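HUMAN: Mind making up another protein with tokenized structure?

ASSISTANT:
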Amino acid sequence: MSPTRSKSTGSHSDTSGHIAPPPPGGVLWTIAGDVRALLMLPPAFTMQVAHPAIGAGVDQYSVFRSDPWGRGERSIRSVQLWVYGGEGAAEEGRRVRRLHKEIRGTDTRGRRYHALDPACYAWVHASGFPVYLYAARYLFRAFTPAQERALYTEWLQVGRILGIHDRDMPATIEEYWPHYHRMLAEEIESTPVARELVATDVPLPRPTGGPLPVRVLTRLAWPLLRTLFLRFRAFATVGYMPPEARAAIGLEWSPAQERRLRRFSAVVRTVVPLLPERLRYLPVAREARARWRAAAH
């Protein structure tokens, strides 16, 4: 796999720089902290691990099987800090790079890899962009061309926070799409981890956190809750994944499933904007929004 060699007019990031996160009020700022964005994470993660090297690294090093709830919570907080962390965003980016320094091995095609190889590391970030565009049509509304461009610019900014050099990401949205489709055609496949993330018959540890009544209910009803959760995870993962990525991974999606997804999304799209802020936004985003409003006054 060869990383893209597109030139960029923007500055590149290194682990010692102080790169600002995306601007308050921007496209990414508006949607990334909304609870609806949680539905975008499973398809993005599945597209990441459908890369042979990334899938092998997650298979060998991740705790997503033994501690899926803790891993998910840590990942969500990290993503939130990249966008809403202010001066702490760059430090979180450096922490993420440090975590990946020792991740290396052989991928499913017998090739040696390192997690910070530019082509692998950039795909982890780049694969989320089409998911945001596609899922937003269901959960928010379709972006205008200007919003798509703004979102990609902000996506590059987050990449710099993560230490991704501009030369390793397509510089413009026009350059992104040929790169994306080339990755789907040449690299993405049905890896063991990708298949596991859409399976409905895999082991899943019971969550142990939360108030006592919730813990008791979860313990008593876990066999049923586990089945329902795995079915919903598979439904949302495949449904909110762009169709061309589904095809590259070999995931099936029927017209009946599409109709159910549209009905479910319509309910979410109607109800979430009516929620109070403490329920609509994730904690890091909620705190950042409060600071932004206070500073504006």
